[in-house]
Structure prediction request, 611 residues.
Amino acid sequence: MAQPLSNETVESKPSLSEELRKPLPKILQTERRGRILTFVSSWVLIVILFSLLIFITSKGIAPFIKGEVSFSNFFSTTWNPSANAYGSLSFILGSLIVSVCAALVSAPLGIGAAIFMTEIAPNWGRKILQPTTEILVGIPSVVYGFVGLTVIVPFIREQFGGLGFGLLAGVIVLSIMILPTIVSISVDTFQSIPRHIREGSYALGATRWQTISRLLIRTSLPGLMTGVVLGMARAFGEALAVQMVIGNSTNLPFDLFTPISTLTSIITLNMGNTVQGSTYNSVLWSMALILLIMTLLFIVLIRWMTKRRDQLQ
Amino acid sequence: MNAKLVDRIATVVFYLITFLIVGILIGLIGFILYRGVQVIDWEFITEAPGSLLTGGGGVGPQLFNSFYLLVLTMLITIPLGLGGGIYMAEYAKPGRITQMIRTSIEVLSSLPSIVVGLFGLLVFVQYTGWGFSLIAGALALTVFNLPLMVRIVEQALTAVPREQKEAALALGITHWQTILRVLLPAALPGIVTGTILAAGRVFGEAAALMFTAGMTSPMIDFTDWNPASPTSPLNPFRPASTLAVHIWKVNAESIVADAKEVASGASALLVIAVLIFNLFARWLGRFIHARLTSSSKA
Prediction:
């Protein structure tokens, strides 16, 4: 403290207290620079999102604007690019049905596992299931696809006949992939329920199952649904794992055992093989746009559900 | 039926569900490792894939590409993610712009990776004229990884006890200095753990890379380390298929004679890598935490 004091007196600048009250310009400058730097990096996110929305949208609506494809052509079920029939409805339906079915299979399992972790065996149940779900999240989707291709498809072929590829194989693979999402959201929901609600129920003489089924599941229903919808959204956008087991035929998705296609599978398979600028290629971009719109709809739905949940609590 | 019996049955059902899920995981990992270990040897890890007809060879270049792409992606993502996370945790005031950034994070992190890949194809491959290249792949992966990274940094920063920040500010140092010298070091374990977990996700990503980094791997010469040379492994403008893309490709084309073996081995490598990332993230986070807290005591 003594040294700066002597320096100041020698240079006989404005009084020391004044000098100390005024921050150094250099410090102010780094302060401002830091602020700007971080602000710019967060703006990158907005720029990316908007350019993505603009690019994909303009590419996706181009074939309709240019008149290469009509809406009634696009939303029909006949897919035959060599005859100018670009009906994508069966792929849209395929995507929807496979993800809804996967969510329906996965929901009871995931919610059940969450109940096990929070209500039945909070100690060791959590110790086992927590790492299990974390590893399931970490496994790359191509690996799921490969296992589906080498285990599930042959299994279905032997048990039920047919090719093995199809809706059922897709649903099985996807339901395992979205399980972690449903489990972790459900666990969060159950944990947010105050302890005294459970205690009140037990004090009234209810059994554990009665408490779970009549109280916990009902109170946490909006939260559980959010988890299921999130899982469904993830299944809807999954590309490679689905493509590897779904069969890639243009059949309508109303049978568990016939090979079908989804939006993602048809895009993955054909985007690389079609000529840039051809109608076929442009229609694939329109499907990508549908995929984007569906994702946005899922987000809106989830937002609405969380808002409702917050209002209820 | 009496209530106690129903309760028993329900409990049994919950146990069954848990065992089913754990069983699925063990079966999955066991199957992948068992199939893979039969294929993986030194040659498989280092050699280039053999010709289409004969098969054979390994996945050396793909393995290298996966790691190199991860490094490139992290070089872009970590600074941007730190910046964005710091802004959101420390500077952002409630308002329209903050709300917009939050929405962007939410939307970007829930986009299907194939859509991100198509955006990459449009912008980083076609618009820039780079063609299928590592740098296009790294930028596409950034789109996919950045929102996650911002969230990780923000959460780690907001988890730092308020008192630490207040103490620093009370000592008279500026906000930016507080962030750099007090908050970031305290948040480091969380940031490191999160970053490595995100890296694991990037490592196994394929759908965003098929149309950006490409599905082919031209000959690369591992003795040529000049990044400007077209056959150099370090050249960021060469097309490169990663392990995950390679697995998809050999299965989808199914012309390669030993597709199943290659896919088994590569899948096992991927899963082993992801497991290592997971364990390493946890260990490193704990290690840094221990080091920081013990050194601050001294």
Observations:
- The two ends of chain A are 56 Å apart (CA to CA).
- Chain A touches chain B through 82 residues (CB under 8 Å).
- The domain at 89-278+293-312 of chain A is CATH 1.10.3720.10 (MetI-like fold).
